[in-house]
Design brief:
291 residues; alpha/beta; Chemotaxis Receptor Methyltransferase Cher, domain 1; Rossmann fold; seven-stranded mixed sheet; three-stranded antiparallel sheet; 44% helix
């Protein structure tokens, strides 16, 4: 393609709408998104990118995507880069999503770990893309179903996400009546409290909240954790990464798993990196560890 043709292509509108949104605009946003988060945005996502970021242009009073791209690329654009990431990341979650993972955790993984905790040992689990908190609280409820006194022992769940807005929601621990429907009434009534809200919402109880620590973390950035984890949940995340980034993440998880640790991934994800063996559908253990 000639330089002139490439220029014309970069100036083509990808999406018709209130704001001109060209191929060049899309590439600048996609490049920054990959740099910031590891997420790969193919051009087929142009309509989604436009619809989510057009709201940001209106709120900022910007007239063009070109001006928006200039802002997020500037030294003064750090706050808006965070807002862009929050707008473009997907936060689909629910309590006990992919329930076979929690069955496996309860039946295969937790019993020896909680016995270790009763004898003074340390137990750590990580929800590495926790979204609004349903996943780590589902882990907490699974633990409490086996060990009601877990919060009095050295049992903790680290819950992290790149988006500080969803992390704040998780910290608050308040969910609508519809959101808590997947939780059995016995667990919900024992470990959660009803909110005095019109929608009949529920709040995570003290024991649930004591088990979970929320923080903001970028999976392709620095990880401050030094201890190892007995289980890591990273579900429906790496599907947005290119293969080299996926391999990098799997390798970093491998280095943070205990010898008997388990990695839980999403239903459409597979771990083909060195050092892992399948322990069932979308569940992995380290090579050579016991079944």
């Amino acid at each position: 393609m000639s330089a002139a043709a490439a220029l014309r292509k970069s100036e083509e509108r990808l999406v018709e709408g209130e704001f001109a949104f060209t191929a060049g605009d899309f590439r600048r946003i996609a490049s920054l998104m990959r740099e910031q988060t590891g997420i790969y945005l193919p051009e087929a996502k142009a309509t989604l990118v436009y619809s989510r970021l057009a709201k940001r242009l209106r709120q900022l009073g910007l007239a063009t995507f070109d001006a928006y791209c200039a802002l997020i690329a500037s030294p003064d654009g750090a706050a808006e880069r965070n807002s862009m990431v929050a707008a473009l990341t997907t936060n689909v979650t629910r309590f006990f999503r992919e329930p076979h993972h929690f069955d496996h955790l309860r039946e295969k993984v937790l019993p020896p770990l909680l016995e270790k905790a009763r004898n003074g040992g340390r137990v750590r689990l990580w929800s590495s893309a926790c979204s609004t908190g349903e996943e780590p609280y589902s882990i907490a409820l699974t633990i409490l179903s086996l060990m009601p006194e877990a919060a009095r022992h050295d049992v903790r769940i680290l819950a992290t996400d790149i988006d500080p807005n969803v992390v704040a929601t998780g910290k608050a621990g308040v969910y609508s009546a519809q959101a808590v429907e997947p939780i059995s009434s016995s667990l919900r009534d024992r470990w959660m409290t009803r909110e005095s809200r019109a929608d009949g919402g529920w709040r995570a109880g003290d024991e649930m909240r004591a088990l979970v620590r929320f923080n903001t973390l970028n999976l392709i950035g620095e990880w401050p954790m030094r201890g190892r984890f007995d289980a890591i949940f990273c579900r429906n995340v790496v599907i947005y990464f290119e293969q080299d980034t996926q391999d990098l993440i799997w390798g970093r998880f491998r280095d943070l798993l205990t010898p008997q640790g388990r990695l839980y991934v999403g239903h459409s994800e597979r771990v083909e990196a060195p050092g892992y063996a399948s322990d069932g559908l979308t569940i992995y253990r380290l090579t050579g560890s016991a079944q």
